[in-house]
Amino acid sequence: MYQITRKNRIKETLQLCHANGDVACSIDVDLNVDEIAGRVNKARDVLGEAQNALQRDPDSAATMEAYGNAVIALFNVLFTEDGTRQLVDFYEGNYTEMLLDVFPFINNEIMPKIQAASADRKEQLMEAARLAQQGNKKAQRHRR
After folding, report:
1. Contact 67, 54 (CB under 8 A)
2. Chain centroid to CA 110
3. Burial annotation 61-74 (CB, 10 A radius, 16+ → b, else e)
4. At what angle do helices 61-90 and 33-56 cross, to 10 degrees?
5. CA-CA distance, 89 to 139, in Å (whole number)?
6. What is the pLDDT of residues 51-104, one digit of tens each?
7. For 2-57, what is the HEC assignment?
8. Contact at 8 Å (CB) between 76 and 84?
């Protein structure tokens, strides 16, 4: 029997807790790495640019709005719109606090898994290309 194990999904649960430790809600993270890897990297780049702009001009309403939009864009990729809404509601719209609290989860739990799954997928594709190339060479030898 030949078995194939699907490896490109990341599943985690993020629990949001009140200061007393009571769980306010849980957000299920279910990511298909093939679908979101590029979007995550782009959203992180936009967030970095927004953070830099905010540091240069912290009093600008437009810069603050761009920063909030960048946080939401990244969270929408990782947590879906529903999960992001739960986060925003839990943090009562305080994007900086939300990002500071949630970013370690993203950076330490989710991103390493996305990077590992992307590297595995790249290796699988390279191996498939190598095998296909070997098959083409064998077919060409048989034609001669």
Report:
1. yes
2. 6
3. eebbebbbebbbbb
4. 130
5. 61
6. 999 999 999 999 999 998 999 999 999 999 999 999 999 999 898 899 899 999
7. CCCCCCCEEEEEEEEECCCCCEEEEEEEEEEHHHHHHHHHHHHHHHHHHHHHHHHC
8. yes
All residues at 6 or more sequence positions from 118 whose CB lies less than 8 Å from its CB, including other chains: 33, 37
Amino acid code (one letter) for 93:
G
Q: Look-up: residue for tokens 């034609």? A: 143
Under a CB-based contact definition with an 8 Å cutoff, are residues 87 and 101 in contact? no
> Which letter does DSSP use for residue 123 in this model?
H
What phi and psi, each to the nearest 5 degrees, are found at residue 60? -80, 125
User: Could you tell me the two tokens for 92?
Assistant: 């009562």
Question: Given 3-state DSSP classes, what are the helix, strand and coil percentages for the chain, each rounded to the nearest 5?
Answer: 70, 15, 15
Place of tokens 């330490």: 108
Tokens 């609290």, residue located:
101
pTM: 0.77
Cα 12 to Cα 27: distance, rounded to the nearest angstrom:
8
Q: Do residues 60 and 48 lie in contact, with contact meaning Cβ atoms separated by under 8 Å?
A: no
| Separation of first and last alpha carbons in the chain | 35
